[in-house]
What we know:
This protein is an all-alpha fold. It has helices at residues 24-51, 57-67, 69-92, 103-119, 128-138, 141-165, 175-209, 213-216, 219-249, 257-275. It is globular and about 80 Å long. The longest helix has 35 residues, at 175-209. The protein is built from ten helices and no strands. 74% of the residues lie in helices and 0% in strands.
Amino acid sequence: MAGLLSTPLLLGHNEAYLPPVVSGSHALQLAVGPAWMLIVMSLQLLKKRLTGAHASKLYSHIWKFISKAEARDKVGRIAQYFCRFLQGALTHAPEAFFLQPWRPVIAEVQTTLAWARRTHRWGKELPHIPVLGEAISKGDVLEAAQRMVLITFLTQDHIYWLLKVGILKFEKYTAIQWHRRNLRFITLSHVLNFSLCLREVLRIQDKQAKGDVKYSGTAEAVEKAEKEIYDNKRMMVRYVLTFIQMLHVSQVKKLDDWYVGLMGVASSYIDASKQW
């Protein structure tokens, strides 16, 4: 067997299943994975003993949520902007503050999350193309403008990715300059999205004032209409927050990372909650 393998499989090598342990910290590092497996296994068996079932509605709901690409993206964005908040807060904290040595790590986590999310944005423009066509056919200028700007942003975001990894090179733009220019497009998209939500709120309220049975005929219709109004107002708050964030990240207007980071966490929570 030894002659067939380049490194030992079971014993005697640092990458083997059972490597030689050289210190207590080394043993602890090796034990983390198996220990966690034993903990979750024990908890699952305890649950079965207490409830008579392995299934859990909450657990099923959580993994179904995490299984959605959009949900993972927004959870990642929460973490990304929380890192931005920490970086901003640490610039105002004393040098002796216990998190100061972790600033490079926090910055690396933020950057890594941003690039992971950007990598998984390829193809994200596809659902917006049919909607753009429908908006043009209906003569809906506002909807069409929003989709046009968003598709442009996403396409240029892919170009940023290609610039960053070196597949493309532009004479007039570095990768970061291209990115900051592109952020102006998503900033405009947020303004247009805010306008779409406002238009929808005003449309529903106008229908209610005119006694439209679809929006005011029954208690169920009223409840549905109020929920639509609430959801649109909630998204309007989200677009205000993301508008401010993009002004800062694009450096159109330099603000402070600590409160921009908190805005990012809040707006990302709104997005993530829609997937829940």
